[in-house]
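Let's practice the habit of predicting before peeking. Look at the sequence and jot down your guess about where helices and strands might fall. Then scroll down.
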Amino acid sequence: MSDDIHQDNKDKYGVPVLERMMEILSSLELQPAGETIRSLSDQLSVPRSTVYRILNTLHAHNVVQRRLDGTYVLGPRLLSLASKVRSEATFDLVALAQPIMKRLAETTGEANKLSVLDNQAVVVVASFAGQGQYALNPAVGQSFPLHAGAASKMLLAHLEAGAIDRFLAGPLPKYTPRTIIDPAKLSSELSKIRKQGWASDRGEHGGSVWAVAAPVTSPSGRMIAALSIPFLAADKENEERGRLRDLVIEAAADISSRIPDI
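Done guessing? Here is the structure:
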């Protein structure tokens, strides 16, 4: 079907306000840091009043959230809806993981997050804020690049070999001086992660933020998600970092043990 025919069918059978709503949600998906009403209006060539009304309605249903700085981001209601979609998975991963993640946060005093692969990125589907003085607070729905970060590298490492090769052949943006952008070095790092069963991040995406991550797998060994603990590097000695690594491995194994055979 040509683009013109596709557009004709879209105009003929679509509902304009729903088309605008989906365009807004798609724009927010591409900008996890948030968008303003003005920027959305300019991007989509839609009157600001229309964008405002749509966002106001979506906000009322928690499909989007409005931040204090006036920007809008995707809201938690989308995760609830997504969890009800029938697919291979016949279990609620977030509900299954939450009690373990809560206990992990209480034990460590640090935040932890559960991340899954989303096309060429990694998205946070569940998180618990840390209780320590300098603990972080990861946001559900936050998106990260696939090559920078402990959880990201864990998920990337367990893709099929062909998919990894194709990814390494593409551009690898540099976020900090510690981001691994050399394909050979990153390939070696991924191999190391597969062998040792955990991943670490020493400021690859956020300079002062380090992390440790472990795999959440199905009974057959299929990678499902990555559980990680992000923390401020300056606040941790080597011994404490090792303790966090051991605890996240233990918690990820606990989550994995509760996943049904699918």
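How did you do? The beta strands are 64-66, 72-74, 112-118, 121-128, 143-145, 199-202, 209-217, 223-232.
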